[in-house]
């Protein structure tokens, strides 16, 4: 009996030892002593659509925002290097408009009544003379070609031009500048025929071809009493200097 009791005690102790060992192994497998294979697999294998190790899904809005941040804050991006399509299309058009405007403004034109002011002034020296002064009131340079084609009153023809008064170059008027011509109204000795008093004057401007008139005519005022003219009436070419106009 003594031996049987001893045997049972040993068996019970061995069983207890086995149970304690099993409990100890279980505790270690749960992370207290050894690495849990299931946990390792979960931590090293990132779920699709997540940042590895973060556990946070990367949504489509997150990806878009990140891309937008890189474009907006980066130095030398395509957005910074190139203007918008609207700006690119406007700049050349503005340059073309500016260039065309400058070219147009720089092109000289023929002087005529709409871009000039004409004044007719009777002179005491030389006697029986009238001085025509034409001032460029436009924004472009203009050319005074040939001589003034003048008509006093209801005259049907224009007087001849004094050929010897032809200048060496065409009279050129910058904006604000003036050109001149003189009109010999009548013979000083009264020998010419068909003398009469005229109270109105029309001045026509010649073009480069010197054939006919161009543009608008000028109608400068004459003295209230009018001016006396006869068949000796003649005019000079347009002159750049007033003294040259008065020397004929």
**Mean of the pLDDT scores?**
74
Kindly, what is the distance between the CA atoms of the first and last residues, rounded to a whole number of angstroms?
A: 173 Å
Strand content: 15-25%
Share of helix, binned: 25-40%
Radius of gyration, in Å, reads: 55 Å
The SSE order reads HHHHHEEEEEEEEEEEH
Unreliable runs, pLDDT <50, ≥5 residues? 1-6, 18-100
Number of extended strands: 11
Total separate domains: 2
DSSP helical segment count: 6
The major pleated sheet works out as: 5 strands, mixed
- Name the structural class: alpha+beta
The shape, in one word, is globular
Tell me about this structure.
- The strands form 3 sheets. Strands 1, 4, 5, 8 and 9 form a 5-stranded mixed β-sheet that branches.
- This protein is 34% helix and 23% strand.
- It has 6 helices and 11 strands.
- The protein has 2 domains: 2-69, no CATH class; 110-246.
- With 248 residues, it is α+β, with helices and mostly antiparallel strands.
- It has helices at 2-32, 37-44, 60-73, 78-81, 85-106, 242-246, and strands at 109-110, 116-123, 129-136, 142-152, 171-173, 178-184, 196-198, 201-206, 214-218, 227-229, 234-235.
- 18% of the residues are buried.
